[in-house]
From TrEMBL:
Residues 116-362 form the Radical SAM core domain. InterPro entries: Aldolase_TIM, rSAM, rSAM_sf, Sulphatase_maturase_rSAM. This is Radical SAM core domain-containing protein. It comes from the Bacteria. Residues 519-541 are annotated as: Disordered.
């Protein structure tokens, strides 16, 4: 738990900016909350307008987008004083208010239910060393709280303990989807450890007398070390592979130890895999690209549109790396103009029907941007609790840290964050097992930060994806560290609201221009993904 002093420090940095009884979030230029006596009206006026030219407003308490009359729009954007009578006259029951305390977030339990908790994803670092030196890498020494490249790798006993505790005979686990991911450093530098893990999985299946048909295996690699021996191993064991190639900006950041670009060598490897293992390439290989400055989304599209080999891959994934500090977010702020072009491309693609979109390279390119599909689905498929003032989860946190995502560091320590493999996020060891009570302690610091900040009045709270590694407040933190973390959270909040605002506007634009059917198709696709994807039903109350 944080002290009252620490909570006050967070509030000083991260707070709604009030003028009279109206407030806006830091970084936004329009009001988004009005206070009227013992009630709050939280809202977000969209840039998109209705077919009739009316303004549109998102009301998080109901989860709906509603039209506004001219008088209602003027009231919301200009009112700076409490006027509950005017509000009652102007607005009807569609415009739900909540108590003046703001959103009610779930309480953190005093102890985990250890009989039901089970981790779904296990991330293994076969090595912490890397054969190149990407300048934006979490482990390159540029970011506070992250480790460096080190000559460490987990021992056989540690790997065995991790696999034994992760793969159990509980039928709920066997029937649910689980995943083991190989990261690093560059995991192929620890290829022998990957082989050990596969032997341990087979041994575990044999000892239990069962198989794990829903277990996904995946390796993230820079591709430089791929050879026939490694490829045969990946194919034989049905291991998914993500290969990093950044298109036009690749050689600006993804450099070797001598500072030379690696683009041509990686691309040659990708094309070699596609030529020699075409079926595996189309079903198991994804191209991962980091969006970086200077970003030119048209140039990025032309790069991949001209590369026919990349178009035969299973998937693309384009996303930003914003690893921490307000300066990092300021640096990426200019990328939002380029993101706007992606959103516009995504919306315009809905003039095609679903079958045509599936064949459209432009649509595939737009929807492969992580910031877009995450925000769009959050906005389109949001669930609203029975209590209009309640947020059913703690922003992006659905479960106790460690119960969904667990990282085994090369030193045998379990961590609840991949980026920040540090003591703050440790949660046990391979030998002793996961300590979910530590995960709860980590979550309590995050919850204190959420409850002390602008989250309680933010229009985006119910859709927010910010998780505890992005605001890891801790009672041991100094005043300076608490303030720095709060500033980082404010920057991350601005990015989150930017994306969610674009998602809400895109939903309205698709509805206006192309009707409800495309949105229904997206909802059905989301349901199908949930049914086919990771499921932890029954593990937690």
């Amino acid at each position: 738990m944080l002290t009252a002093h620490q909570r006050n420090l967070i509030e000083r940095v991260d707070h709604p900016e009030w003028v009279g009884d109206s407030a806006k979030n830091i970084g936004e230029n329009r009001p988004s909350v009005h206070r009227m006596g013992d009630q709050l009206f939280i809202f977000h006026v969209l840039a998109e307008r209705s077919l009739d030219g009316d303004a549109l407003v998102y009301i998080p308490a109901s989860g709906k987008i509603e039209p506004l009359t001219g008088a209602q729009e003027q009231f919301l954007l200009n009112c700076q004083a409490s006027d509950s009578k005017a509000f009652r006259l102007l607005f009807d029951d569609r415009f739900v208010t909540i108590p003046a305390d703001g959103w009610s977030f779930p309480e953190i339990p005093s102890a985990p239910d250890l009989t039901n908790v089970r981790s779904r994803t296990l991330v293994l670092n076969p090595t912490e060393q890397c054969n190149i030196r990407c300048t934006y890498c979490y482990y390159g020494g540029a970011y506070d709280g992250t480790r460096l490249h080190q000559n460490l790798s987990p021992g056989y006993e540690e790997l065995a303990a991790a696999i034994d505790s992760f793969l159990v005979s509980d039928q709920r686990v066997v029937d649910s989807q689980q995943a083991i991911y190989f990261f690093g450093g560059e995991p192929l530098l620890g290829f022998n450890k990957m082989q050990e893990v596969m032997d341990l999985i087979r041994s575990r299946e044999e000892s239990l007398g069962i198989s794990f048909p829903n277990l996904i295996l995946q390796v993230n690699t820079n591709g430089m070390l791929l050879n026939e021996r490694i490829m045969n191993f990946l194919v034989e064991n049905d291991i998914y592979m993500n290969v990093s190639i950044d298109g036009p900006n690749h050689d600006l950041y993804r450099v070797d130890r001598r500072g030379k670009g690696t683009h041509d060598r990686v691309r040659d490897k990708v094309e070699w895999v596609a030529q020699n293992w075409p079926d595996y390439f189309s079903k198991r290989v994804a191209i991962i690209s980091v969006l970086s400055q200077p970003l030119d989304t048209r140039k990025m599209y032309k790069y991949f549109a001209a590369w026919d080999v990349a178009q035969r891959a299973l998937a693309w994934d384009f996303d930003l790396v914003l690893p921490g500090g307000s300066g990092s977010y300021d640096e990426f702020q200019s990328l939002f103009d380029e993101q706007d072009k992606i959103w516009k491309l995504f919306v315009s693609a809905h003039k095609m029907d679903a079958a045509q979109r599936d064949r459209s390279l432009r649509y595939h390119y737009a929807f492969s941007h992580g910031f877009l599909h995450r925000s769009f689905h959050r906005a389109l498929n949001q669930s609203v609790p029975d209590d209009p003032a309640e947020v059913s989860h703690l922003l992006g946190v659905q479960l106790i840290p460690g119960s969904e995502y667990l990282v085994l560091g090369a030193n045998g320590t379990y961590y609840t964050s991949y980026e920040f493999q540090a003591e703050t996020f440790s949660a046990g060891t391979a030998d002793a097992g996961v300590d979910y009570r530590v995960g709860l302690d980590q979550l309590r610091g995050f919850a204190d930060g959420v409850n002390s900040s602008s989250c309680s009045t933010c229009w985006a709270a119910r859709m927010c994806t910010i998780t505890f590694p992005e605001a890891p407040f801790n009672m041991q933190d100094s005043d300076e560290v608490i303030t720095q973390k709060a500033e980082t959270k404010v920057a991350r909040c601005r990015s989150e609201r930017e994306n969610l605002s674009k998602a809400l506007n895109s939903i309205s634009a698709i509805r206006n221009r192309f009707g409800e059917e495309p949105l229904s198709e997206h909802r059905a696709d989301w349901v199908r993904q949930q049914e086919e994807g990771p499921s932890i039903a029954g593990f937690n109350q």
